[in-house]
Amino acid sequence: SFCFFFFSFRNSAKLVAPLGCLVSRQKHTLPDLPYDYAALEPHINAEIMQLHHSKHHATYVNNLNVAEEKYKEALAKGDVTTQVSLQPALKFNGGGHINHTIFWTNLSPNGGGEPKGELMEAIKRDFGSFANFKEKLTAVSVGVQGSGWGWLGYNKEQGRLQIAACANQDPLQGTTGLIPLLGIDVWEHAYYLQYKNVRPDYLKAIWNVINWENVSSRYATCKK
To answer: Where is Mn(2+) bound in this sequence (predicted)?
Structure first.
């Protein structure tokens, strides 16, 4: 439900109307992890998972709620200057909440291996092979300068899978139009405690916990 903010970036004429629904909005909350903090070990250790979820993601949620509250007040006053000044905070914290909410479900202690069915067929069609896809997404994720995300997304207009990188917490769909299927967090807080500054080692390990059932389910949903 955050996408109305990001849509407004592209089409300022529609800025006010979709945001009117903020007046009666529910506060955002931190989603529970579908597994224990230690469940992804040895690939991602418990300390990283606990800090990442209970501190980093929680901060995005709290800051998003604060920014939305301020936005609601500015909207009620017709204060466009404040509305515009709040958009970076909405984008950053809203994106952080969207991205991490996807990320936790993209991982599983029973993950790894390769996808099956329609998703695997689409990967072979659009990337040549699973190995080629894995290599490309890893390379894009390694190559993110500073903080950001590597993504497998679905291009609905073209009906194909696409790899993309986003800086900071820019949300994939709100900034590129691609529907997110699989996100790999390459902020240092996602791996530093275990892998230090060696991002490629973290990226090699994360494939062992990718939840292909979740990615396949997302693919099936966005194709409908």
So the answer is: 52, 100, 185, 189
